[in-house]
Amino acid sequence: MAKPKNPATAQADADANAYVRGEMQINEQASTFKLFMSLAKWGSLAVAVSLVFLTVWFRPGGNLVAAFVSAAVLAVVGFVALKPRPTQAH
Length: 90
Prior knowledge:
With 90 residues, this protein is mainly α. The protein has helices at residues 10-18, 26-58, 64-82. α2 (26-58) runs antiparallel to α3 (64-82).
């Protein structure tokens, strides 16, 4: 069991004790959520494009041009599908 006054974890213990549930500003929470969702969305598209490119290129009988074209098509379709839509006023 860890010592209660361990100097190696003193800063972490102080941060944990300073945390008060429900004190985060709503705009900070909303912007953090939007950032996470955006990174997850565009990161997933980047992984999918990379996988298509590598799969088509390295499959038996595959070539670089077909891989590039397939990845480019997926990237364009993914960008159109994932781009932010304008918000409508209610």
